Amino acid sequence: MKVTQCLDDLEQNLWHYIRVNDFGFLEIIQNIDEINVNKDDILIHKQIKEGDLFPIIRYHLIKRDRTFVIEKAYVKALLSDKLVEFVKKNQKLPYACGIKNIFSDGRIQIDYTPIQDVSFSLKIIPEDYDIKNSQTFFEGLKSSTNPITSLNPQQHIQYSKNRWSVPSSSDKSKIYTVTKRSDGSFSCTCPQHIYRRAECKHIQQVKRSLL
User: Fold this and answer.
1) Are residues 157 and 127 in the same domain?
2) Which of 70, 96, 172, 209 is an S-S bond match for 74, by CB 3.0 to 4.6 Å?
3) Alpha-carbon distance 101 to 76, whole Å?
4) 46 lies in a domain?
């Protein structure tokens, strides 16, 4: 399908993809004109306005040849169902999932955080999934690796005018977005640039490529 056919009120072409069956996560969709997706997968659309620390986010549920804008609560409910299915089948936690809290009534909170600003707190109620003991059901489970192949960390790819994706050198599953603003300055979605307002190595890498 074409990501450009997914309609909402945002303008920037900054998209993430969640493959819900195994929690595979794609931080940057390189070819927004063609992506292979499955029914019930999730597309996350972001728009980062200049000067803002946090993006505006819209969630899209894929249904055959079209998508529907949904609320984050629906995404969390869908991921909760898929998480239990994954654990029963594989005896391990999906990618980027970690146990946050086990409550006295048996409920369990598992956080799915594939990147810093994409995070879902999933609340599992044992009775809803025929789980007799949530603590023993999840005990000792390790998180899987990202089943979606990452980019070569030495590469940077320009995927639209004045915008580049730059993989992290320390974590191959993370890819940051460098943008050249209208005034000639650069911004990056990595934590160092967002929170320290410093020129990060991803911006420096893009600048070197433009020389």
Assistant:
1) no
2) 70
3) 16
4) no
Confidence of residue 137 (pLDDT cuts 50, 70, 90): very high
Within 10 angstroms of residue 45's Cβ, the number of other Cβ atoms is 24
Q: Which residue has the tokens 């789980």?
A: 131
Structural domain range at position 168: 150-211
Q: Which amino acid is at 50?
A: E
Of 138, 168, 190, the one marking the end of a domain is 138
Is 120 within a domain? yes
**Is residue 10 included in any domain, yes or no?**
no
Where is the domain boundary, 114, 138, 162? 138
Average pLDDT (37-41) is 91
Distances (CA, A) of 117 to 49, 112, 182: 15, 11, 25
DSSP characters over 188-205: E-SHHHHHH----HHHHH
pLDDT score at 154: 41
Q: pLDDT digits over 53-71, tens only?
A: 778 999 999 997 789 999 9
Please give the average per-residue pLDDT across 181-209, as a whole number: 86
Number of domains, the chain:
2
What is the H or E stretch that residue 158 is in? strand 157-160
The pLDDT score that the predictor gives to residue 83 is 98
CA gap 95, 145 in Å, rounded: 5
Q: Using CB atoms within 10 A of its CB, is residue 84 exposed (0-12), middle (13-18) or buried (19+)?
A: buried
